[in-house]
Amino acid sequence: MKIITWNVNGIRAATKKGLMDFVQSEQADILCLQETKANRDQVEAPIDTLQYPFAEWHSAERKGYSGVATFSKAPVKHFNAGIGTLDYDREGRVLITEHEKFLLYNIYFPNGGSGEDRHNFKQKFLKDLNAHIQKLLKAKKPVIVVGDYNVAPTEIDVHDPKRLAKESGFLPEEREWFSDFLNLGMVDTFRHFHPEAKNRYSWWSYRELARISNRGWRIDHICVSKDLLPYLKKAEILDSVEGSDHCPVSLEIF
């Protein structure tokens, strides 16, 4: 089974930049998109399903903002648009789908860089998410959390750790959160297979034309609960794929 996650920075814009070609070439069993920036009723076929038999969307109340969508070849047993907290759910941040062997959380984590209010919003989201995931793990539920985490975990996950240490996404408290998240019983699948890999990023600033010189951040992740470790096959960053300021991240499992 291949799972791919990608912040497409607008599903309609990404479609104009080759999204359907990517879907056809990769043939992911489950494709999770973040920052769709659209409601499902705003797009036409094939964008609404990307030609998958099962498609679930969770869009923000605000038009053209945030939003996540999950596309699956196999039936989805159940889904929840959100985690039951209005402040997060109205922004289209979390989509939960239940599959045969695991729960899948497709999440577009908040960006805290626009000011103190959004920084505090992000920190609360991170704290609340850990509490939520901890309950699942205590209940022995296999969990996969994919998405744009907006957090780079370690110094080798950003191109200039000293300069960026005071930037949202690489703040000490955010890196500490990621460590706490893993300590709950989660595994960063890319680092599981590539523990020392450097210069491997999933986001580059458009404004700084950073992709040309690979001045990036690794902020898009697929993390799994430890009970899924024996089933991991391969994890990659598909950094040659263009069409967004992020690139896709993949996991092969089972």
Describe what this molecule looks like in 3D.
It is a single chain. 43% of the residues are buried. The chain is built from seven helices and 14 strands. It is α+β, with helices and mostly antiparallel strands. It has a six-stranded mixed β-sheet with strand order 3-4-2-1-14-13. It is globular. It has helices at residues 11-16, 19-26, 86-89, 116-138, 161-164, 172-183, 189-193; strands at residues 2-7, 30-34, 54-58, 68-72, 78-81, 94-98, 103-108, 143-148, 186-188, 203-204, 216-217, 220-225, 232-237, 249-253. A hairpin with a 4-residue loop joins strand 6 (94-98) and strand 7 (103-108). Helix 4 packs parallel to helix 6 (172-183). The termini are close together. The model has no long low-confidence stretch (mean pLDDT 98).
What's the SSE blueprint?
Blueprint: E1 2-7, H1 11-16, H2 19-26, E2 30-34, E3 54-58, E4 68-72, E5 78-81, H3 86-89, E6 94-98, E7 103-108, H4 116-138, E8 143-148, H5 161-164, H6 172-183, E9 186-188, H7 189-193, E10 203-204, E11 216-217, E12 220-225, E13 232-237, E14 249-253
Parallel strand pairs: 1-2, 7-8
Antiparallel strand pairs: 1-14, 2-4, 3-4, 5-6, 6-7, 8-12, 9-12, 10-11, 13-14
